[in-house]
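Lecture 7 notes: from sequence to structure.
We start with the chain below.
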Amino acid sequence: MLTPEQTDRYLERLALQRQNPDLEYLNTLIRAQLRTVPYENLSIHYSETHSLSLAIPTLYPKIVLNGHGGYCMELNMLFGALLMSLNFEVYQRAGRVWKVGSPHGPEGEAISKHWTGWSHMVLIVRLDQDYLVDVGFGSNGPVTALAIPPMSSLGDIVSGVIPKEHQLGSMPAPHSPGASVYIVRHRRDTAAPWTPIFTFDPNTPFSDSDYEIMSFHCHCHPSSPFVSSVLCTTVGFDQYGKAITRMLLQNNVLKKRINGENQVVEKFDTEETRLKAIERIWGINFSETQKQGVKKWNVGIVGPEPERTIPIAGWS
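Predicted structure tokens for the same chain:
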């Protein structure tokens, strides 16, 4: 949990006040988080150490005081601490992410190699029923709390960044015959097929040490897409709380998603122009020493080049 002073400062960053811990306030907090705190992996690359910590004493100054964001385990870890400090009942859980490019549908989803190992962190918030909360998936993540339906049922269809939609259901666990897991799917619009995002088990507890191991693989292993890509995104909401736009940095291209289509805003030919855009849009700054860290994994921009794709589900 956060101290009362830390909670107030976090709420100040989100431009919110304390309220009763109900579903309406939970969704208000989620929207403010997604609008204000970017999902990003910049600290993996613009860094002296290239290491991430999930400890609250490290996450709090990074995200709240210094205005940075983070990726799933950083964002959900700190957001979960905020929710607990606001008297929500919160449980930390983990998920497996669908591998981009794998065939989906019942047959594709049933094959274990189409899923990662434990690589994603989610939150379960208990109110009148259990809700999935995830402020750390990135480009195609949900933008509201998802009511967890009874196993073998489908949940409500919930709007994402318009016209995207999300739905929560269940499926046989690809890694454990005889067991079932919940799955989050999305579709780009009502005419598109449902595509898997991640599975999770709301009943299996995970410790801080578990997340440290998961995070270490994500930000250090050479095969991790977070090591080979630079990304950052936030969501834009209208006055009614509907998610209507998404700003995305995808390696050397800045895009804005409107009505389900990605529009190129700017293509970067130099590190300087990319860093200026990160500062202009998200207010994130790095020291000169941190900027030099981008050379470690060859993700720096060294001149005009084709758009680099991101091998993470949902970043197309």
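Points to note: The chain is about 30% helix and 25% strand. The chain has a mean pLDDT of 95.
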